[in-house]
Design brief:
The protein is an all-alpha fold. Helix content is 65%, strand content 2%. InterPro entries: DUF3667.
């Protein structure tokens, strides 16, 4: 009886037995790219219960410290990549905001004075609020710098950047949920999402650094508002520069 021809993985070149390559995990039946394959991969990544996205969100809620330590220790395939997670949460925020017609200026008092300087500051503030999610990368950076400053011995700056992408991704998810409350329940709770994130960040860091938890909580209590302040300064400065160039 003749032996069936072996299948070679098109990703890593190893011989494959079964549906998936034991070396890299790619399907053995990969052919030309089709629309079905593309959308099937998206559906698998988003809606399968065991998919990395849902595993990542669950672990970030239930045990964020364990999940972050696992990822930094090398368990990369188990979890959604930090940048991809951040980008996906941002896209969800933008889509939901568009879907429910969310107004970033709701409950914002806009006072335009006569001086050109005041008008410029108001325009910069409006630009910043309208494009606030375009500046979230700055928030990632300021949060990572804060973590490195207060916990400099534990991990490298690059590792803290990865952690910050996950943290800001969760922040974006919380703000997205808060949009519904603002839009349909009470417009006076615009800062509820920020408060919840502050509490979550402290919880995540205490879970991430399980030693000397009291001091970790105190440091986290300081890091988050400092990072938020840096994020605001960078975002508003860029907005002011753009508005100034437009009006010049």
């Amino acid at each position: 009886m003749s032996k069936s021809p072996s299948i070679i993985c098109k990703n890593c070149g190893e011989e494959v037995e079964g549906r998936y390559c034991r070396s890299c995990g790619q399907r053995s039946s990969v052919g030309r790219v089709t629309f079905r394959e593309t959308f099937q991969d998206l559906a698998d990544a988003l809606f399968t219960v065991s998919a990395p996205l849902w595993v990542t969100i669950k672990k970030l809620v239930v045990n964020p410290g364990g999940m972050l330590r696992d990822y930094l220790a090398g368990r990369r395939k188990t979890y959604y990549k930090p940048v991809s997670f951040f980008v996906l949460m941002t896209l969800i925020f933008l889509f939901v905001g568009f879907l429910i017609d969310y107004d970033p200026f709701v409950n914002q008092t806009i006072q335009v004075q006569e001086s050109d300087e005041s008008m410029l500051l108001n325009e910069a503030r409006d630009f910043y609020l309208t494009h606030i999610n375009n500046f979230l990368f700055a928030f990632v950076l300021t949060l990572a710098l804060g973590l490195k400053l207060f916990f400099w011995k534990k991990y490298s700056l690059a590792e803290y950047v990865a952690v910050s992408f996950y943290m800001i991704g969760i922040y974006t998810l919380i703000v997205t949920l808060n949009m519904f409350y603002i839009q349909y329940v009470d417009v006076n709770f615009q800062y509820l999402g920020l408060l919840i994130m502050w509490i979550y960040f402290m919880y995540a860091m205490v879970s991430f650094f399980p030693v000397k938890r009291f001091w970790v909580a105190v440091k986290s209590l300081i890091i988050f508002p400092l990072a938020m302040m840096g994020y605001f300064i960078i975002g508003f400065s860029i907005s002011l520069l753009i508005v100034s160039l437009r009006t010049s």
